[in-house]
Write a structure and sequence with these properties.
The structure holds two protein chains of two kinds.
Chain A: E1 12-14, E2 21-23, H1 45-65, E3 69-73, E4 76-80, H2 82-91, H3 95-124, H4 131-145, H5 150-161, E5 168-172, H6 174-192, H7 196-206
Antiparallel strand pairs in A: 1-2, 3-4, 3-5
Helix pairs in contact in A: 1-3, 1-6, 2-3, 3-4, 3-6, 4-6
Chain B: H1 28-47, E1 48-56, E2 68-71, E3 74-84, E4 91-98, E5 110-114, E6 117-119, E7 122-124, H2 127-131, E8 134-138, E9 148-150, E10 164-171, E11 182-185, E12 188-198, E13 205-212, E14 224-227, E15 232-236, E16 239-243, H3 247-252, E17 254-258, E18 273-278, H4 281-285, E19 313-314, E20 317-318, H5 325-328
Parallel strand pairs in B: 1-9, 2-8, 10-18, 11-17, 14-18
Antiparallel strand pairs in B: 1-4, 2-3, 3-4, 5-8, 6-7, 10-13, 11-12, 12-13, 14-17, 15-16, 19-20
The chains are: A mainly alpha, B mainly beta.
Chain lengths: 209, 342
């Protein structure tokens, strides 16, 4: 295979701000056009990725244990956790809704934890294993990141709409805050990860210098 | 880790700006997260009170994870599980009390299921119609910890800290009284019947009453209790006399007490004192009677018109039924003479 020259090898680096290809050989540390700091790779990507992922994992526990919603219907109040809600729907026969809630609130964060963990681990160990698939995995994680706030949105919407005073009220509870934190932290983790790290070791080994 | 890229050839000339700390500041985020998580766990652990088991006759209205335990309408705990007892004769509800409700896990605490109840004395627990049942609680005076309780089937009429005194009345029958029947003092409701039970020998009933403070000080050693149920009607020389305590006492029955006018100012009765319950106000407030004596009389004349319950009179005093002690002894040894009056 005939690869064109790597930006590294040419001593070039792309500016994040304006897209200008800067010449690193002159010792420049900032973009010579717009002045933005230039990095070859996202700064401290793996450490940041791990830190945010770990924080998200910690918050994932209270997000699932604490009630996310307080429903008060005709004087009888009840607090519902995510798991409790899934079970309730499942037992009521609405297995499809139960499945959606389960996938959106338990499955997706779990997949993200696993995927990010895998990406960070392999990048850290400069693995050349399944680089293409790992890149796809990263794009997938970025994609589902947008949809992870579904639970938070549902609670926020329902709490805003169901305020019928005596008949029924729904209030958010602290669990949903932790759930939101999990989503934000996993997104930060995904953001700080640099997908080019996947290919760095590959480029080293696969290409003659 | 993140800086490893700067070692690569081609970027060799680039000066590397080093941080003052070798450890990235981003690790503050997970540390903060762990601190928050740990504080949550600790707070949750600190707030959790004791777990108690309450056995009820039936689990009606008890839902695990939903039914709350309330004291004065404040939630002090929640039912975590509802299971059948081992002998399958009752239902055991496990209750997680909150930390500040530790005082309810002591001996003498009482628990009952609050359900809507409609009785002649009134309607209670209407709020549970919509919200579902809850468990009412009442603390005891003991400090000894206790983990298992037997739930009451009916709410206790008097809660532990209510001020007042309990008294016991003995009567030949219960009449139309029930738990919750009111007690009147000068036609003011001052208390209620809290319990009744047959005496051990079956020859009467014992009625427990509770008189609230400050009215309990009007119950003196001289006080007489009488049944104020229904309407007392008397037709006498001065016309028809109707006497009743209150409308609700006509329907539900009630008790009244008072002291006879001739009684001296007596000390307030002690808690748990015993009294006799009289059938009506008149007999209650009458001066105390002596021992009843039974006489057998033989008449030579015809007994027409004489029936059971006919009065026996001495100088226009009615003796029968309530012979006065001063008249039962025959004066000066002369033989008493009896005749039937027609």
């Amino acid at each position: 295979m005939n690869y064109p020259a790597n930006a590294d090898e040419l001593g070039l680096c792309l500016c994040h701000g304006c897209g200008q290809a800067c010449d690193l050989s002159s010792g420049a540390h900032a973009c010579n056009r717009c002045g933005a700091a230039i990095h070859r790779r996202k700064a401290n990507a793996i450490a940041r990725g791990w830190a945010f992922l770990l924080a998200a994992l910690v918050f994932y526990i209270p997000a699932n244990l604490l009630p996310v919603m307080h429903t008060e219907m005709l004087g009888s109040g009840s607090e519902s956790t995510i798991g409790g809600g899934v079970l309730e729907f499942w037992e009521a026969g609405a297995w499809d809704i139960a499945l959606i809630i389960f996938i959106a609130s338990v499955g997706v964060p779990a997949i993200k934890f696993f995927s990010l963990g895998l990406l960070l681990f392999t990048a850290q160990h400069r693995s050349t294993w399944a680089c293409r698939q790992r890149s796809q995995l990263y794009r997938f994680v970025e994609l589902i990141g947008y949809w992870s706030m579904l639970d938070v949105m549902v609670v926020a919407l329902v709490a805003a709409l169901v305020q019928l005073r005596g008949l029924g009220t729904i209030e958010p509870r602290v669990g949903i805050l932790f759930f939101g934190m999990v989503v934000v932290l996993t997104m930060l983790s995904a953001m700080s990860f640099d997908p080019r790290l996947i290919w760095d070791s590959h480029a080293n080994e696969g290409r003659p210098h | 880790m993140g800086q490893q890229t700067d070692e690569r050839e081609g970027a060799g000339q680039v000066e590397v700006r080093t941080r003052r700390w070798s450890v990235s500041l981003v690790w503050i985020v997970p540390i903060l997260a762990m601190l928050i998580g740990a504080s949550l766990v600790v707070r949750n652990w600190m707030q959790q009170g004791p777990v108690i088991a309450i056995s009820f006759h039936s689990g009606e209205g008890l839902v695990a994870g939903k039914t709350q335990v309330k004291y004065r309408s404040v939630v002090i705990g929640e039912v975590t599980t509802v299971d059948l007892a081992d002998d399958k004769k009752s239902v055991v509800a496990k209750v997680q009390l909150s930390d500040d409700a530790r005082a309810f896990a002591t001996q003498g605490a009482r628990f009952w299921v609050v359900r809507p109840r409609i009785g002649v004395g009134g309607v209670s627990g209407v709020d549970t119609l919509l919200s579902g049942s809850f468990i009412g609680a009442d603390s005891g005076e003991s400090k000894t910890p206790e983990k298992s309780f037997v739930g009451l089937e009916l709410p206790p009429p008097v809660t532990f800290d209510e001020k007042g005194k309990r008294f016991f009345l003995t009567a030949s029958d219960l009449g139309s009284l029930d738990v919750g029947s009111s007690i009147y003092y000068r036609k003011i409701p001052v208390g209620e019947v809290v319990s009744f039970a047959l005496q051990d020998d079956g020859k009467g009933v014992e009625i427990g009453v509770f008189v609230q403070a400050p009215y309990d000080s009007f119950v003196t050693a001289d006080s007489r209790f009488w049944n104020a149920s229904g309407v007392d009607m008397q037709i006498g020389a001065n016309g028809l006399k109707v006497d009743t305590e209150s409308l609700s006492s006509i329907l539900v029955g009630g008790l009244a007490f008072g002291s006879p006018d001739f009684a001296p100012q007596a000390e307030p009765a002690a808690d748990q004192a015993r009294f006799q319950l009289f059938a009506d106000r008149e007999s209650a407030l009458a001066p105390p009677n002596g021992q009843a004596q039974y006489l057998q009389l033989r008449f030579d004349q015809a007994m027409r018109g004489l029936s059971v319950g006919a009065p026996v009179e001495l100088r226009a005093w009615s003796l029968a039924g309530s012979p006065r002690s001063s008249w039962t002894t025959t004066p000066s040894g002369s033989p008493s003479r009896w005749w039937s009056m027609r």
